[in-house]
Each structure stands twice: as C-alpha cells, then as structure tokens.
Known about the structure:
Helix content: 25-40%
Radius of gyration: 23 Å
CATH topology of the largest domain: TIM Barrel
Shape: globular
Strand content: 15-25%
CATH superfamily of the largest domain: Alanine racemase
Number of strands: 20
Distance between the termini: 18 Å
Number of helices: 9
CATH class of the largest domain: Alpha Beta
Order of helices and strands: EEEHEHEHEHEHEHEHEHEHEEEEEEEEE
Amino acid sequence: MDIAALSDTILDGRTKGIPANAAPFRLGDIAAQGWNVMAEDMPLPLMLLRRSNLDHNARVFAEYLAANDLSLAPHGKTTMSPQIFDEQLKSGAWGITAATVQQARVMQHHGVDRIIMANQLIGRAAVAGVVAMLRDAPALDFYCFVDSIAQLDIVARHLAADPPPRPIRVLLEVGVAGGRTGVRTRAEAQALAHAIAAADMRHIRFGGVAAFEGVVPGIADSDAPVRDYAQMVTDIAQALPGSLLEGLEEFVLTGGGSGHFDIMADTFATLKLPIPVRIVLRSGCYVTNDSGAYFTAQEAARKDPARGWKSQLKPALEIWAYVQSRPEPGLALLTMGKRDAPYDAGLPVPFARHVPGTGPAPVGEAEIFAMNDQHAFVRLPEGSDWAVGDMIGSGISHPCTAFDKWRFLPVVSDDYDVTGGVLTEF
C-alpha cells in the first residue's frame, strides 16, 4: 500500500482530538509535538490507541492463523483507517473486507489489491463503481456476495452494459432462517449455483462460498447454533455442482466474525474438494479488541475446552474524559457522550483515574449508566472522592461503532506519550 501521503495531512486546532491552540502541522510530525495525554496536553474527550496492545493483537492473531492454515481478510469497516489496513497487510492479511462500494473505493485508492465486499452488490451506480475500480487498478481482485438469482441478474445486466476489464468474482452467501442475507436451503444454493455457472464468464466468475455467523439466532445463549450453521455452510459447499469448480485455481470459503471465528474455521477445515480450499476469516475487531462484548466472547472461548481459540487479545482502544460535574451525591458527569464513544453494544466501563498534578488514583465503584450526545452519567458511591477535573479512562464495547466517531486517533505509548496517529475515512 502507498500511504505515505497520509503523513502529509495537515492537522490543526479544528481537528477533533487536537488542542484548539495547535498551529497547523503534518500528521507525520505529531510525535515531535511532545504531547502526553496524562499531562493534559490533549483535549478530552479523546479516543486513543495503545501501541503495545495493537502490536500484541497483530502478533497473537497471526500466530493463530499460521498454526491453523487460515487466511485473513479483516473487515475494514471496523476502522476505515488506511494506516491500519497497511499494518494488517504487512502482518500477512490476504486481503481486506468492505461492506459497501464506497468503503471498497477507499481501500482501492490506498492500494489494497484484494477486496471482499461482504455484502450484496446491487444497483447501477454500485456496479459502475466496481467497474471503475477494476479499470483504475489493474492488480485489483474484487469479490462480492450473491444470494439470489434476482440480484445476480441485476449485476449481470449492468455489467453487460458497462463491461469490466476482468470478471467480478462472486461468493455464494449462505444464511440461516431468522438471520440476515444468504440462501436458506441447499435447494436455493443449487439453483443459484447453476445460475452463476450460466453467467457470462467475461463478467462474472464463481469464487466460492461465504457466511457470517454473528447474526445467527440463539448465538447469545449457546455455541450450538453457530456449530449447526457452520456445518450447514460446509455441507452446501460440499454439494455444489462440479461444473462450478471448473477453471478455479482455489475455492474460497469465508466466514468468521470476531466472536466465533474458531468454530467456523474448525468446521470449514472438514471441506474436501478436488481443488485447494482457502479458508478466509473476516474478523475485524481482533486488531483493537475491546473491553466489552468481544472481550467477553473471547474469554468464554479461551475457557471452553471444546473451542480452538486459546490466546488472549488486549483492548487497544481507550476513551478518556474529564469529570465535568458532581451535581449530586453519587453522581458524576463526564465530558464524553454518544458522539465520542460507542453505546450500541454496552456503555463504556471506567477502568482508570488520573488526578492532574498528582497521578493515578483508584477508580473505586463506578458505572456509566447513561449517555447523552456530549455527557456520560456515572453512578458512584456517596462517599466517592471523584472530583471535578479528574481524568477518567474507560474501555469500550464494539470497535465498529467507535472509530466512526473520530477522524483522527492518537497512538500512544504505555506512558501515554503521543507517538503517532491514524486517520479514518468513513
């Protein structure tokens, strides 16, 4: 990837997360500013990335992939940060996953040469956008999902009117009753497979089978629905007509979000075809992990003797805010809200307190129980010594709805020195 130009991006006091009195400077020169978050050099609220935990997660996940002969196309919608894409590819990622054509365009613009659009490609403008990317980037290999003959026909019609320079690779998506997109039965999969085989191979080429287990009904109560779903996907892949495999160098079988990827991978490994099978996980949140939903899911997996995941990821995302007000006993207001931190999969959880000029202090009992646009409400014991001006660090749940609130995030050392920064392009 060519991301050097991002270092020349000019930041100044109008940028969220940058001191309002900062003179314009290059992103690449941010470490030279000498800022430290705990020294109050940065304005709060501030979402930041801890460098050591980013590196730990990259190393641990790469080791898991290598040990299990797996490939990775991490879901780029998690971060939409070209600098993080670059780090993921340098750590061995096979490609990057997008959810929309706009996201794919950002990836292609910055040099990603293999993109899975884990969604249905539909509509003239979207198809035209993909064709433009294929023309602009001769090395680009583009995959998308199909789950109906109607959708396939729409794509084929638009490609016939505006032919791509090389075929779009399609992945037959298998869903589950009560879930999201994807065919529901083997009969539907067979019918769609025959339709793909009959498509104009100059425009559309079969690539494999896709799945996403994160929305399988009942997943919160038991792993059994995920295991059943993974087996159904594998069975459907096994039963596809042999004619569909003709001319394929490899069969891509992809699934695996950030909570149950090991179950999907273990089941997918049982697929036996006359051509090589590449198992591609699409976990996106592994890179930063979190302190909530994904942390909980992965800890449960590590402790389950039936699960293949035994490593530990660390939360690299933190959000810091000031105690803004103590208007009542047992209540504190923080200078962060829904515009700053995710709230869809659980509210932030305070884990650290820093008293400016003094240093670290105990958090004690503290629960964020509500958030407005710019405020977080914290329930405290009546005797709590939290004071106005204290700095509170919180862990978040669901990285996918954390990054989209920030155009810029500083990267810090374990001492909270600002050593770098990443940009997002949502």
